[in-house]
Amino acid sequence: MTELSEARQVDIAARVVESALSTDPITGDTAFTEWLADCQDRFRTLVEPVPLDRLHGWSVHPETGDIGHHSGKFFTVRGLDVEVAGAPIPRWSQPIISQPEIGILGILVREFNGVPHLLMQAKVEPGNVNGVQLSPTVQATRSNYTSVHGGKAVPYLDYFRAADRHTVLADVRQSEQGAWFHRKRNRNMVVLVDEPVEVLDGFCWLTLAQVHALLRLDDLINMDTRTVLCCFPFSSSGFDSAGLNDTVGLNNTAGDFRADLVHGLDPGAPTAQSMAEVLSWITEARTRHDVRVNEIPLNEVANWYWDDGRITHDSHMFFDVVGVGVEAVGREVGRWQQPMLEPRGLGLVAFLVRRIDGVPHVLMHAKVEPGYFDVVELAPTVQCTPETYEHLPAEARPPFLDEVLAAPAERIRFDAVHSEEGGRFLHARTRYVVIETDTTETADTEARSNGDYRWLAPHQLATLLRHSHYLNVQARSVLACLHSLVTPEGTR
Q1: What CA–CA distance (Å, rounded) separates 130 from 422?
Q2: Digit-coded pLDDT (tens) for 458-467
Q3: DSSP codes, 94-161
Q4: Any residues with CB less than 8 A from the CB of 195 and at least 6 apart, and which?
Q5: Of all residues in the chain, what percent carry a pLDDT higher than 70?
Q6: What is the distance between the alpha carbons of residues 168 and 317, in angstroms, rounded to a whole number?
Q7: Are the CB atoms for 473 and 230 separated by under 8 Å?
Q8: Containing structural domain, residue 491
Q9: 88 phi/psi in degrees, rounded to 5
Q10: Is the pTM of this model over 0.90?
């Protein structure tokens, strides 16, 4: 692996910034629109319901009720028993996806005319509401890239499995949804190459500015792309090094949210608390919360039952476990069947952002979820399915949910609906929102949350992202949306 000097890191940051501001991509708007339309026309899935106990290649264990693949690979649907001392709902059990494999999510980067471009893939997933979405260059579980399914090889995989031949810009293991997966992790990678790369069918080079613009559209940039995007190493020092501040109106004037956001990416920008204090807060939260999680047989999960070939909660909330049969064009395998989780209701993920000493700070939540490796990860200010709380005790209602739902349009900086991972979740969609607030109720925040909320600057979040299991997948997704705001609207 190429060791990056400090000067090289600054240079790469500057070039990534150029990509985020580029108006001269090698794939122009018209060419991209035509390419995407062609992929949407050719790459399709036909998804039909199949009873869970009739899935080809899968079986329901006669003693435990667990649902597993005949190869013993991919994933298993099991039960989880959870105790969280002092929580509004202190104990429950639920189905969960157990997938101990570590997959690879990787974006390949190459410079054209001095501007980094990202190799994006038009990928169709059975759970997507609209078929094709833009995924990373490589998006594969270990079972996929070791060809357990007997399908074709994963394109471009060697760039990430033999990354020491290239320049690695990011390489870190991160978790996925802690309420739906038990200890699931993926390797998030960004690899820069300086050699010609053959562009295969279904792939396209885009600048970061183009991807940022596409993030503003519903259901186009998939979850795996979002989680890798937030790992890109750009900062305000890159804007300075690129000599772009004066030419694109990035003067840090009061009231200019975008300029302040760029400033907030500077590692030297003021913060509400030091990184030492942030790390101590996270450690304290992980120590304070008493959480006990045990995998149990699926048929011992309370308040869930089989109903016409699916598993559902007796309140008809949360999610269902369903079976699907898939016929696909444009995938490594053309036909298969599998279980999926089908959420009930549109999710909501929101950042509240407040300027402190002129620097936008994000209100982060030290959140407990049963599927985490280490009790707590940092979540967005709000992360929930709002309609669920119409049926739960009032004390369970998330802090700041009402503020987010009532936010006036003039304070909303980002607002789009994005799909969650379409390989495991059927039509799982979430509204991602960034809201600027003038709330100063820090003391009230701590009183209502037992200290589980803190204001962090964007560059502090970037520092945490260099390490595993600090920011959850929802936080990484909405952070990618926040980062996209450094690209002016209309820049492509």
Answers
A1: 10
A2: 999 999 999 9
A3: EEEEE---EEEEEEEEEEETTEEEEEEEEEE-TT-SSSEEEE-SEEE-HHHHTTTT--PPPTTTHHHH
A4: none
A5: 90
A6: 43
A7: no
A8: 1-492
A9: -55, -35
A10: yes
